[in-house]
Amino acid sequence: MAVQGSSDILIDELYETTHRLRQFVEARLREKGASVARLRALRMLARAEHPLRMRDLSEMAGIAARTATSIIDSLERDGLVERLPHPHDRRAFLLHLTDEGLRCHREAEEIDRLALAEATAALDAGDREQLRALLARIRENTV
Question: Is 52 exposed, middle or buried (0-12, 13-18, 19+ CB in 10 A)?
Answer without folding.
Answer: buried
